[in-house]
Amino acid sequence: MNRIRTIGKPCFLLILAFLQVLFFVVMYRRGSSKIFESFSKRNGENWDYSKVKDIYTNLTLFTPALTNELQYCPPKSPLLVGPLSITFQNIPSLKRILKKNPYVKRGGLYTPPHCQARYKTAILIPHRNREMHLRHLLYYLHPFLQRQQLHYRIYLIHQAGNETFNRAKLLNVGVRESLKDEDWDCLFLHDVDLIPENDHNLYVCDETYPKHFSSAMDKFNYRLPYWSYFGGVSAMTPEQYMKINGFPNSYWGWGGEDDDIAYRVRYAGLKIVRVPLNIGHYKMVTHNTDKGNEENQKRFDLLVKSPRRWKEDGMNSLEYKLISKRLMYLFTNITVDVGAAPKDRKTKTRS
Ligand code: UD2
Ligand code: MN
């Protein structure tokens, strides 16, 4: 995501003028009503988010299965309840989360006890110094995925050391390491501070195209902040991920990498599909800027070079040092040394 703080610079004004012209050309060619319609597209059921259910409703009624020969889970899970009650007032303890999720195995692995899952999803979370956010996420995400009757595993990709944070590279590491464990159908690239609000937002991939899930976040008044937005929560099949050569490894610090990924999707001949706005509801835990994740001043330069660089900067050039892989009670912790930003890189603190 790009927070523009360069208003007033001539190049910025030039870009602005160019975007205005582009906007009018697109309006002329596609018709304004169509454009605004797609910005606020709300498909299917009309969800009422003032009527919410507890995320653990019915889940604790589970008992172990009596047989090993399980039938496939139904195409649509009978456990879905719709809008969920999400609050960040109390931070749940790991002990409490563990108690509420008795079927989650070490490493944050879950298999439905009563039916054979139709789908295998890996959740990859880039992380450093966000333990409180992680607890909120684990508290809500485990039951959320269990309601969907998925076979899943939650991975935390933890950046070791104090060098500048690199979200995109951590996710590349997550993809490579998680695929060593299992042939996942779907890879979720998930910010630690985003909680899905509706369990009908199924954590499965689109078979053909990369998919954006956090289409309506509270921090953006439940709308898309801009047309090509791809930050927050997205998912790809391993094939789609490899086709775009994964994420760029060269974005150090905050911003830009999600836009680069959106570009890559297009360069690879794919497109982004999105969860409808009335289902893709998310709450973000409010937070300040992290130390070590200052705004990346090089992001605009990198974005300009993206068409030339995407084939050589990504999964095919990924280098890292795996420090440890530990099976924690509620997740798999992959601690990794992703290196450091090149020395000439200057960053400025976000306000
Ligand atoms: C936006 C995007 C995010 C990403 C980022 C730019 C949303 C909701 N999300 O997030 O996907 O594109 O802009 O890089 O718009 N993190 C840590 N420790 C840190 C720093 C970051 O764990 O010290 C992880 C964590 O998973 C966090 C994610 O990186 O959720 C994104 O960083 P952020 O939350 O600081 O940035 P934000 O909310 O502006
Ligand atoms: Mn955030």
Map the helices and strands.
Blueprint: H1 10-30, H2 32-39, H3 94-100, E1 109-110, E2 120-127, H4 131-147, E3 151-159, H5 167-181, E4 186-190, E5 194-196, E6 211-212, E7 216-217, E8 233-236, H6 238-243, H7 257-267, E9 273-274, E10 281-284, E11 295-296, H8 299-309, E12 321-327, E13 332-337, E14 347-348
Parallel strand pairs: 2-3, 2-4, 3-13, 6-9, 7-10
Antiparallel strand pairs: 1-3, 4-8, 5-10, 6-8, 11-14, 12-13
Helix pairs in contact: 1-2, 7-8
What do these coordinates show?
The chain has 351 residues and is α/β, with parallel strands linked by helices. It has a single domain, classed as Spore Coat Polysaccharide Biosynthesis Protein SpsA, Chain A (Alpha-Beta Complex), CATH 3.90.550. It is 27% helix and 17% strand. It has eight helices and 14 strands. It has helices at 10-30, 32-39, 94-100, 131-147, 167-181, 238-243, 257-267, 299-309; strands at 109-110, 120-127, 151-159, 186-190, 194-196, 211-212, 216-217, 233-236, 273-274, 281-284, 295-296, 321-327, 332-337, 347-348. The strands form three sheets. Strands 1, 2, 3, 4, 6, 8, 9, 12 and 13 form a nine-stranded mixed beta sheet that branches. A three-stranded mixed beta sheet has the order 5-10-7. Helix 1 packs across helix 2. The longest helix has 21 residues, at 10-30. It is globular. The two termini are 15 Å apart. It binds uridine-diphosphate-N-acetylgalactosamine and manganese (II) ion. Uridine-diphosphate-N-acetylgalactosamine is lined by residues 1, 125-130, 165, 167, 191-194, 217, 231-232, 254-255, 257-258, 284, 290, 292-293.
